[in-house]
Design a protein that fits this description.
The structure holds 2 protein chains of 2 kinds.
Chain A lengths: L2 E5 L4 H12 L4 E5 L10 H4 L9 E3 L5 E3 L1 H11 L12 H17 L1 H16 L6 H24 L10 H4 L2 H9 L9 H11 L2 H6 L4
Parallel strand pairs in A: 1-2
Antiparallel strand pairs in A: 1-3, 3-4
Helix pairs in contact in A: 1-3, 1-8, 5-6, 5-8, 6-9
Chain B lengths: L2 E5 L4 H12 L4 E5 L10 H4 L9 E4 L2 E4 L1 H11 L12 H34 L6 H24 L10 H4 L2 H9 L4 H4 L2 H11 L2 H6 L4
The chains are: A alpha+beta, B alpha+beta.
């Protein structure tokens, strides 16, 4: 029996887990959740994920958990001996990794998810784009990426000089925005180099268009 | 050399690092960053913290920013003293990571969003966006309903022992209380129990008004 990944085929958070599973060559069964039909808000679902969100995993022995970044960390730790060391062990290297992981969370995620919402998803759910908010998010994100360009001029990846989960966590939303023509990477040389590097990884290429 | 915490004594993120240092019995020296003079945007500062934010630490020459990363670094470095803030058992660690991610994805964004409108803007003589504040409050209410379910099954957000996952809620939780929203916690029995416990810990009482 393999690990079960409950999620949505193109969901950013589901893909965050999937790319980590691919990096570690962990076989898994993808079980789609009917978001459009509101399955994630049913009592049967919220018994497993009280916030009504995807994804969550269920392992062979019944162990289950949710929160994509937490799942990725669990997989990276469990299969630490396989493939790349996605979370460094050395104290200082792990600190720089954590700095990068936190940068993704506070200096990237709020902006890219907000931009994806305003420019793509809100229309899908019958809403209208808030132009002012979209403009403000883009302006702030640009200044954040200027800082990214500085950092990536001093170290190869966002979490240090080796690839880590911190880099992989950026992939889903960055791709969504590129898919709707919002490219803030190409114009920043170090960011562009880094983005090309991480998007060309076989693990991402295998699942980037959905599960 | 004593740990240097470069920040602002009443800053949310600076106090997050301070409470963790207190839990671990790690002495630190607060080095004030002069926001009024724009010190956080100066070249000397942004050379260390390219996003121009506080806090950062200087641990005998080793510099690190992002409060949650600093907290993890200290918890790892001083794992043998004070309170154990990150579990070592793999499954307990996974539930801890789930809890940390819950805080940063399901609590922090709307807590800080509300705090910006109803605490920080008034402090700076700016007008709050009441509609946005209402939105954040609604989100918080539904998120905390899920917290109440979670905290009915486990004692703390990261498992059955206190961890960094709980401590990360303190600064932003206090912001909500400051803004007159204590009822968010108090009206939900399990959340109320948990909030009372963590917000009355000596480590937090020592720094809640000043790092």
């Amino acid at each position: 029996m393999v690990l079960k990944l409950y999620g949505y085929p193109t969901s950013t958070c589901t893909l965050r887990v999937a790319v980590t599973l691919k990096e570690k060559n962990v076989p898994f069964e993808f079980i789609p959740v009917d978001l459009v039909g509101g399955q994630h808000k049913t009592p049967a679902f919220t018994a497993n994920q009280p916030f009504g969100q995807v994804p969550y995993i269920v392992e062979d022995d019944g162990f289950q958990m949710y929160e994509s970044r937490a799942i990725a960390r669990y997989i990276a730790a469990k299969y630490a001996g396989v493939g790349e060391q996605l979370i460094p062990k050395d104290l200082r290297e792990s600190a720089i990794f954590e700095q990068g992981a936190s940068i993704e969370l506070t200096d990237y995620e709020p902006f890219v998810s907000g931009l994806a919402w305003e420019n793509k998803f809100t229309q899908m759910y019958g809403g209208t784009k808030d132009e002012k908010r979209a403009e403000s998010l883009l302006a702030t994100w640009r200044s954040k990426l200027d800082a990214y360009d500085k950092i990536l001029g001093q170290q190869k990846y966002i979490g240090g000089n080796k690839i880590t989960l911190a880099d992989l966590f950026h992939l889903p939303y960055g791709s969504v925005l590129l898919g709707i023509g919002i490219d803030e990477f190409s114009s920043r040389p170090n960011v562009a180099r880094w983005w090309n590097d991480i998007t060309s990884r076989p693990s991402w290429q295998a699942i980037k268009d959905g599960l | 050399m004593v740990l240097k915490l470069h920040g602002v004594s009443f800053s949310t993120c600076t106090r997050t690092v301070a409470v963790v240092a207190k839990e671990l019995n790690v002495p630190y020296e607060l080095v004030n960053v002069d926001f009024a003079k724009g010190e956080h945007k100066s070249p000397a500062f942004t050379a260390v913290q390219p996003f121009g934010q506080v806090p950062y630490i200087d641990d005998d020459g080793f510099k690190l920013f992002e409060s949650r990363a600093i907290a993890r670094y200290l918890a790892k470095k001083y794992a043998g003293q004070g309170t154990k803030l990150i579990p070592t058992d793999p499954k307990e660690e996974a539930i801890f990571e789930q809890g940390v991610s819950i805080e940063s994805s399901n609590f922090y964004p709307s807590a800080i969003g509300f705090g910006i409108e109803k605490v920080f803007k008034p402090m700076r003589g700016l007008t709050p966006d009441e509609a946005r504040a209402e939105e954040h409050l609604k989100t918080l209410a539904s998120k905390l309903d899920a917290y109440d379910v979670l905290l009915g099954k486990q004692k703390y957000v990261g498992g059955n022992e206190i961890t960094l996952a709980d401590l990360f809620h303190l600064s932003y939780g206090q912001l909500l209380v400051q803004a007159g929203q204590a009822d968010l916690f108090e009206s939900r029995p399990n959340v109320a129990r948990w909030w009372k416990e963590i917000s009355t810990r000596p480590s937090w009482l020592a720094v809640k008004d000043a790092a």
